[in-house]
Amino acid sequence: MKGTLKARYELDQMTATSTVSVRAGDLNLRASMTDATLVNGPSLNGLALAVEKPGSFIIDYNVPKKDLRFQFMNTVRVLEKQLKLNYVHFKGDSRTVLDGTLVLDSANKVSANHTIGSRNCKLKYTFLHNGLTTIEPSYDFTKNAWDFSISKRVYGDDVLKAMYQTSSKNVTLEWSRNSKSNGSFKVLASLNLADDHKMPKLSAESTWDFEM
């Protein structure tokens, strides 16, 4: 049995989520809770259950909303290139999302995300330079706008990332670490250039993995 505890800190609030998973043959059984599940006594608020077969499918059930989410994954070969496909269906609002990533080589890949029956479509190109720097321009057809991000791995487990959304004029700087020995955390600072006050928003996330 494995578990994960994640805490998020902001200037005016603190939230926490926890996940417990159990291996049952080829399947993972998972239960996720937020702080709303336990604050003021046990409740169903923020509780979600899931059944997962890694690389094949995930079925999520949101207990308070009584809503199901189905996700199916597959990988095929197209012209000797690897194409990763995701099919996600949200039962509650009858929404279906198709997501695909075409791996051109070890440094280049193209991703597309489309909500069936809508104009919601996003296209992203990912370029990995020297195995350390990742450049990702993306285009949102709904907003008719570009987004850009660049990240660089430093000191082994640390990643520095900068993101800019042209539609909202939002700039985000992120410092993250994902290390089994040194722990995992993420620190974010975001600033909206359209805001007259120009005050950045700060937040931090910490993640702990454990076995029971």
Automatic annotation (TrEMBL):
<keyword id="KW-0934">Plastid</keyword>
<keyword id="KW-0406">Ion transport</keyword>
<keyword id="KW-0812">Transmembrane</keyword>
<keyword id="KW-0813">Transport</keyword>
<protein>
    <recommendedName>
        <fullName>Outer envelope pore protein 24, chloroplastic</fullName>
    </recommendedName>
</protein>
<dbReference type="GO" id="GO:0015288">
    <property type="term" value="F:porin activity"/>
</dbReference>
<dbReference type="GO" id="GO:0046930">
    <property type="term" value="C:pore complex"/>
</dbReference>
<keyword id="KW-0626">Porin</keyword>
<dbReference type="GO" id="GO:0034765">
    <property type="term" value="P:regulation of monoatomic ion transmembrane transport"/>
</dbReference>
<keyword id="KW-1134">Transmembrane beta strand</keyword>
<dbReference type="GO" id="GO:0009707">
    <property type="term" value="C:chloroplast outer membrane"/>
</dbReference>
<comment type="function">
    <text>High-conductance voltage-dependent solute channel with a slight selectivity for cations transporting triosephosphates, dicarboxylic acids, ATP, inorganic phosphate (Pi), sugars, and positively or negatively charged amino acids.</text>
</comment>
<dbReference type="GO" id="GO:0022843">
    <property type="term" value="F:voltage-gated monoatomic cation channel activity"/>
</dbReference>
<keyword id="KW-1002">Plastid outer membrane</keyword>
<dbReference type="GO" id="GO:0034426">
    <property type="term" value="C:etioplast membrane"/>
</dbReference>
<keyword id="KW-0150">Chloroplast</keyword>
<dbReference type="InterPro" id="IPR034626">
    <property type="entry name" value="OEP24"/>
</dbReference>
<comment type="subunit">
    <text>Homooligomers form large rather nonselective pores in plastidial outer membranes.</text>
</comment>
<keyword id="KW-0472">Membrane</keyword>
